[in-house]
Design goal:
Elements: E1 7-8, H1 9-15, E2 19-21, E3 27-28, E4 30-31, E5 41-45, E6 61-64, E7 75-77, H2 81-92, E8 108-109, E9 114-115, E10 120-121, E11 126-127, E12 132-133, E13 138-139, E14 144-145, E15 150-151, E16 156-157, E17 162-165, E18 170-173, E19 176-179, E20 185-188, E21 193-194, E22 199-201, E23 207-210, E24 215-216, E25 221-222, E26 227-228, E27 233-234, E28 239-240, E29 245-246, E30 251-252, E31 257-258, E32 263-264, E33 269-270, E34 275-276, E35 285-287, E36 292-293, H3 294-324
Parallel strand pairs: 4-5, 5-6, 6-7, 8-11, 9-12, 10-13, 11-14, 12-15, 13-16, 14-17, 15-20, 16-21, 17-22, 20-23, 21-24, 22-25, 23-26, 24-27, 25-28, 26-29, 27-30, 28-31, 29-32, 30-33, 31-34, 33-35
Antiparallel strand pairs: 1-3, 2-7, 18-19, 35-36
Length: about 325
């Protein structure tokens, strides 16, 4: 990452209101991951597991927590190294990202829809009847927002996402499925970010809700009447079946499957590729299929890896017993 002009170490520290140690006039030309940083780069260390890379790093300077002790010559001292590194990115790339907020002429917006100030609506986006969108919201191209959806302030919705499509509701009658009307809506609260190519179905009745401050990765599906709490994080390819309820501050790894009508306690953390089949009544970290406490899951995985070896040992024991005690078997 190379900016339009270099920054001195002191200039960078001032930008993020941090103290520094080292050469104030040291010129920084780019940002880099610690294993790719060179003598022109600024990097960061946020996790103690990466402390071992500090002294061997080729970086010009490192942002790190004051609690990490090192003799590295040029450091910026930060209580949140990753967050401060992220704050620097726009300064190094002022010409990238969304440069101007517009209502694109190729967007299709129903005349009954309303939106607040400083919104961006991308090309080929479709906004349906009676949709309400708050201020400072960015909706990129090729998004479809069905009727009666409510979207709050400071929301970001990436390309290809569909919000408010019919829930998967059918009732088997006689010899065929009959569609259950899906006439509820979707509510996206303030400060939510939704990745590309997600689908969030409208409720049968009532509302499908994504709570304030929650972050949804690409390729996530929320079925009808799902409720995601505030400040949750959901990684890609995760799916929530109908009427699942997720408490505040939950974290989901990728490819998690959540059964319908389950309730997940606030503060729960879910490992990737977990299958949640029943309620999680108290906050804990879970993994596996079906979901179990993470330490139990890890033990099970260790035992599973040992099964081939255990099988061979069992065969040897059986062979030995047959040879020694053939008269009794």
């Amino acid at each position: 990452m190379v900016p339009s002009h270099p920054f001195s170490l002191k200039e960078i520290a001032d930008l993020i209101s941090c103290d520094f140690r080292g050469d104030a006039d040291l010129q920084i030309e780019k940002l880099a991951e610690i294993h790719r940083a060179d003598g022109r780069s600024l990097t960061f260390v946020d996790n103690p597991r990466y402390q071992k890379y500090i002294d061997s790093s080729g970086a010009a300077a490192i942002i790190l927590n004051p609690e990490l002790k090192t003799d590295f010559p040029n450091v910026i001292l930060s209580k949140n190294p990753q967050g401060d590194f992220a704050r620097l990115i726009p300064h190094f790339f002022p010409e990238r990202g969304l440069q101007e907020r517009i209502i694109h002429p190729r967007a299709v917006i129903d005349e009954s829809a309303s939106f607040g100030e400083n919104c961006h609506i991308g090309a080929n986006t479709i906004i349906g009847h009676n949709v309400k969108i708050g201020s400072n919201t960015v909706i990129y191209g090729n998004v479809t927002i069905y009727d009666h959806t409510e979207i709050g302030n400071n929301v970001i919705i990436h390309a290809g996402t569909v919000i408010g499509s019919d829930g998967f509701g059918f009732n088997f009658q006689g010899d065929s499925f009959k569609k259950i009307p899906q006439l509820g809506r979707v509510i996206i609260e303030d400060d939510v970010e939704i990745g590309a190519n997600c689908t969030i179905d409208r409720a049968t009745v009532g509302a499908t809700i994504v709570g304030q401050g929650s972050k949804i990765d690409n390729l996530v599906h929320l079925a009808h009447n799902v409720k995601i709490g505030k400040h949750c994080a959901v990684a890609g390819q995760t799916g929530f079946a109908g009427s699942a309820v997720v408490g505040d501050y939950c974290i989901f790894g990728g490819q998690v499957a959540v059964n319908g009508h389950v309730k997940i306690a606030p503060g729960t953390q879910v490992a990737a590729r977990t299958g949640i089949t029943k309620d999680i009544s108290a906050p804990e970290t879970v993994g596996g299929v079906p979901a179990m406490p993470i330490n139990d899951y890890r033990k099970r995985e260790i035992y599973l890896r040992k099964l081939p070896q255990m099988n061979e040992e069992l065969k040897r024991i059986i062979s030995f017993l047959k040879e020694r005690f053939s008269d009794f078997l």
